[in-house]
Specification:
It is built from 35 helices and 38 strands. It has 993 residues and is of the alpha+beta class. The longest helix has 35 residues. This is Copper-transporting ATPase HMA5 isoform X1.
């Protein structure tokens, strides 16, 4: 028991903290203070603060999040620090500071004073070695197209990774900007024969489109351009004189859109008026363009195809009309044949030119796609018909049979299929569109006087908000940007971002998320993250990246696509040749041949049918469309899945490893009991303990200080007595002198090392606390043990039920924690987990995950929330980060649970299983369609049933197969989480779906 008691406090301290003795602070020049409510521009800030600099330090000795927190806090206390970020995994600290007030040496000394060895890293701090850009690609029709582009990109020196998604028609390319520019990437894509449009460069700059009214000459636009280029922070300006549109790239930390509008409107004596260009989202407008293109093409093809169909298949059976169409013009050439030839030609070469250009692009790069099949099939029908009518025109006896209706109807049905396909594909990305529409169009900007009073309200476009702006949010209005409350109280509905159904109370100091809805009171918020930095934009980017990432199962379809089209062409030619030779050598009765055609024409029809019924598109769309819908559904429910790889791995999970603190437990320790061994006023006791612990960053220390505030409810921010000779002892506790009394707070080992005896009563209290999953902290004053403080981290509601449901899904649950064995076993018993690993360091957690994978062959998911969980999150087959956890944990994870609810672990696994069930069904349909359709098109049923598939019907079937696969994926939008979760009762409260 003694060992267990010792670890009770030591391990929790070691999991989160590392302190060194603090030396007296050196004196630095103070930062200038601004009057309340006064905002300072970036240029003014530079003139006051001096040059902004960045430095990266190597920090040795950090072991957990509290170490990083203590270093970060110490750096931020220095004057002139703009930003400080400490990465415990890579043992680095990045600091952005103003050189007028502080320098690298001062920062280094401060880190050293906290107790860590540090050195300045001078190499590679200012030059990016990796950059990601996104490019929209027009003209891709099947997997062969996307594979061609992807292969071409991967061969370019400097490209580190390239992903091309057929469903989204986008490429995401990671490249070295020192070797390559995004312009070269655009050119490389265009060289493969497709149109490339830049979406984002990945550079540290923003872009905005402005429309300028009042401009009548090109000279005026040049004057405006000159005025804008004079501003600092402008990267690039593109002008479209016809639309009076300016495309401005700029550095958002230096300048913003409101500056541009002010400059434009102050140029030319106020005759110009600038506004955000009224243009929808690029992806949506491109999709609408594509839909409209196929709709128009299909409608125009109908104009010509319907008369061709009527003259060849309807009017030929109507007396009078038939006689008119059969009138001979030249020799055996009839009016009907001329009409069909004239009407089908525009369909073949004008409306169907897209298939020619697509074929040329593919064949030029040594690949073959769907366009090649369509072009070959329609050309075979069209040019055979041309040969037939020309021969009829030159012969007094040859009676021609044309297939003009085959080529024109084939193109029309394929265009209809493409129209329905792009229409359905547009719906697969509705989740992103809905997320983007959460942001309000306008916002109310407040301006203050020197006294902090509101002097002006202005309604502005929400895209014009800058950091540190103060925005008013009225009841029922959407929050315009990320920020924190500086005035007012209200409840905010965050369900659209986090999935949390209950409104969250907000008051001064609380953070708010852009796109959420203010329920009741008025709030004033200060903007902290705008544009691409906002939580909403980050979620959109994450979902978009997820939809770009290919699932491993898709590689199978990609491999098939390389050989699919050439194989189909060989099968088509073989089918024609087999039927032609069979007819020539009388291998089947003449009665099998329809009266209107001969054996050659019958063989040709079979060959064309085989060529056009084969559908590589269905195979190419089977996975990405399902992944798009699945990740979109997850995002709408607060489960962010980072792509096909995560989905595929999650559906195989049979073992889940849970972290304890902040995952199974609430992550907010609270004092639950206090036992004093000497007569003492509780207020005085906590006064001394809080004075010692207020200097510590440890979660348990914060819990004690928070509890001590209850004894001083009359003060909003109580000031504790000054602690002298404060010392934090890593993994054990703290000691200090307060009011001339020597106070020590920590574990049993610390007391024994300090020569303080621990009575039997204290041992019993510690043992009892451990059995209740509590942490016991000993307190001594002037070398005498005075009391024990019991701290508990409550188990999350529903944790036991979730573990039970996972068991019913054949998924084992295990607990791995850095806490002591007693507390870990107590928590595990409470939630129903049998397998426990305690006192584990971050690397031990990762090793446990690897052991489960290698020794037991488990597919492991790790669920955690802290920096110390990151190695295990990366090592696991699927890392799941609790949404309220650290940014590093979220970055390391494959799936992010935005609501921080454990039920979403089940939702994530169930959604991935349903999504992959849909992918399997899509593949079954795509393969089954081709395996069944090709033999029927080749005439497999003809000898026994005389059934043959006309080429235009085969083309319609091919188009329908792609649409059916996309629609199959769209059915995932109706996903319902497991009914067991709907009936889950937590503490007597039924959780609603």
């Amino acid at each position: 028991m003694a060992t267990a008691k010792f670890f009770s406090f030591a391990c929790l301290r070691n999991e989160s903290s590392n302190y060194g003795e603090l030396s007296p602070k050196p004196h630095y020049p103070s930062m200038p203070k601004y009057p309340k409510g006064v905002s300072v521009s970036t240029d003014e800030e530079k003139s006051i603060h001096g040059t902004e600099s960045k430095a990266v330090f190597s920090v040795n000795g950090m072991s957990c999040s509290a170490c990083a927190g203590s270093v970060e806090k110490a750096i931020k206390r220095l004057p002139g620090i703009k930003e400080a970020v400490v990465d415990v995994l890579n043992n680095k600290a990045q600091v952005i500071f103003y050189s007028t007030f502080v320098d690298e040496e001062m920062i280094r000394e401060t880190i050293k004073d906290v107790g860590f060895e540090t050195t300045l890293i001078t190499e590679g701090t200012n030059e990016k070695t990796s950059q990601v850009c996104r490019i929209r690609i027009k003209g891709m029709t099947c997997t062969s197209c996307s594979t061609t582009v992807e292969s071409a990109l991967q061969l370019i020196p400097g490209v580190q990774k390239a992903q091309v998604a057929l469903a989204t028609e986008e490429a995401e390319i990671q490249y070295d900007p020192r070797i390559l520019t995004y312009s070269q990437l655009l050119k490389a894509i265009e060289d493969t024969g497709f149109e490339a449009i830049l979406i984002s460069t990945g550079e540290d700059r923003s872009k905005i489109l402005l429309k300028v009214d009042g401009v009548f000459t090109e000279d005026s636009m040049r004057i405006i351009e000159s005025s804008l280029r004079a501003l600092s922070g402008i990267e690039d300006i593109d002008i479209d004189p016809e639309l009076k549109k300016l495309s401005i790239s700029y550095k958002s930390d230096i300048i913003g859109p409101r500056n541009f509008i002010q400059v434009i409107e102050s140029t030319g004596s106020g005759e110009f008026k600038a506004m955000i260009f009224p243009e929808g989202d690029g992806k949506q407008s491109h999709r609408q363009e594509e839909i409209e293109h196929y709709r128009q093409s299909f409608l125009w093809s109908l104009v010509f195809t319907i008369p061709v169909f009527l003259t060849s298949m309807v009017f030929m059976y109507i007396p009078g009309l038939k006689d008119g169409l059969d009138i001979k013009v030249v020799n055996m050439l009839s009016i009907g044949e001329i009409l069909r030839w004239v009407l089908s030609t525009p369909v073949q070469f004008i409306i169907g030119r897209h298939f020619y250009s697509g074929s040329y692009k593919a064949l030029r790069h040594g690949s073959a796609n769907m366009d090649v099949l369509i072009a070959l099939g329609t050309n075979a029908a069209y040019f055979y018909s041309v040969y037939s009518v020309l021969r009829a025109a030159t012969s007094p006896s040859f009676k021609s049979t044309d297939f003009f209706e085959t080529s024109s109807m084939l193109i029309s049905f394929i265009l209809l299929g493409k129209y329905l396909e792009v229409l359905a594909k547009g719906k697969t990305s509705e989740a992103i569109a809905k997320l983007m529409n959460l942001a309000p169009e306008t916002a109310t900007l407040l301006q203050f006087d020197d006294e902090g009073n509101v002097v002006k309200e202005e309604e502005i476009d929400s895209r014009l908000i800058r950091k540190n702006d103060v925005i008013r949010i009225l009841p029922g209005a959407k929050v315009a940007c990320d920020g924190f409350v500086i005035w007012g109280q209200s409840h905010v509905n965050e369900s659209m971002i986090t999935g949390e159904s209950r409104p969250v109370a907000k008051r001064k100091g609380d953070t708010v998320i852009g796109g959420t809805v203010n329920e009741n009171g008025v709030l004033h918020i200060r903007a902290t993250k705008v544009g691409s930095e906002s939580a909403l934009s980050q979620i959109v980017q994450l979902v978009e990246s997820a939809q770009m990432a290919k699932a491993p199962v898709q590689k199978f379809a990609d491999r098939i696509s390389k050989y699919f089209v050439p194989l189909v062409i060989i099968l088509s030619f073989s089918t024609w040749l087999a039927w032609y030779l069979s007819g020539k050598y009388n291998s089947y009765p003449k009665s099998w041949i329809p009266s209107s055609i001969d054996s050659f024409q019958l063989a040709l029809q079979f060959g064309i049918s085989v060529m056009v019924i084969a559908c590589p598109c269905a195979l190419g769309l089977a996975t990405p469309t399902a992944v798009m819908v699945g990740t979109g559904v997850g995002a709408s429910r607060g489960v962010l899945i980072k792509g096909g790889q995560a989905l595929e791995s999650a559906q195989k999970v049979n073992c889940i490893v849970f972290d304890k603190t902040g995952t199974l437990t609430m992550g907010k320790p609270v004092v639950v009991n206090t036992k004093l061994f000497r007569s003492m006023v509780l207020r005085e006791f906590y006064e001394l303990v809080a004075a010692a612990e207020v200097n510590s960053e440890h979660p348990l220390a914060k819990a004690i200080v928070e509890y001590a505030k209850k004894f001083r409810e009359d003060e909003e921010n109580p000031v504790w007595p000054e602690a002298e000779d404060f010392l934090s002892i890593t993994g054990h506790g703290v000691k200090a002198v307060i009011h001339n009394k020597k106070v020590i707070v920590g574990n049993k080992r610390l007391m024994l090392e300090q020569g303080i005896s621990v009575p039997v009563d204290a041992d019993e209290v510690l043992a009892e606390a451990e059995e209740l999953a509590q942490t016991g902290i000993l307190v001594s004053i002037d070398s005498e043990l005075i009391g024990v403080v019991a701290i508990s981290d409550p188990v999350k509601p529903g944790a036991r039920e979730v573990v039970s449901l996972l068991k019913s899904m054949n998924v084992e649950s295990k607990l791995v924690t850095g806490d002591n064995w007693g507390t870990a076993n107590a928590i595990a018993k409470e939630v129903g987990i049998n397998d426990v690993i305690a006192e584990a360091k971050p690397e031990d957690k990762a090793e446990k995950v690897k052991e489960l994978q290698q020794s037991l062959g488990k597919v492991v998911a790790m669920v955690g929330d802290g920096i110390n969980d990151s190695p295990a999150l990366v090592a696991a087959d699927v890392g799941m980060a609790i949404g309220a956890g650290t940014d590093i944990a979220i970055e390391a994870a494959d799936i992010v649970l935005m609501k921080s609810n454990l039920e979403d672990v089940i939702t994530a696994i169930d959604l991935s299983r349903k999504t992959f069930g849909r992918i399997r069904l899509n593949y079954f349909w795509a393969f089954g369609y081709n395996l069944l359709g090709i033999p029927i098109a080749a005439g497999a049923l003809f000898p026994s049933t005389r059934f043959r598939l006309p080429p235009w019907v085969a083309g319609a079937a091919m188009a329908a197969s792609s649409v059916s696969v996309v629609c199959s994926s769209l059915l995932l939008k109706n996903y319902k989480r497991p009914k067991k979760l709907d009936n889950l009762e937590i503490g007597g409260i039924t959780i609603e779906s």
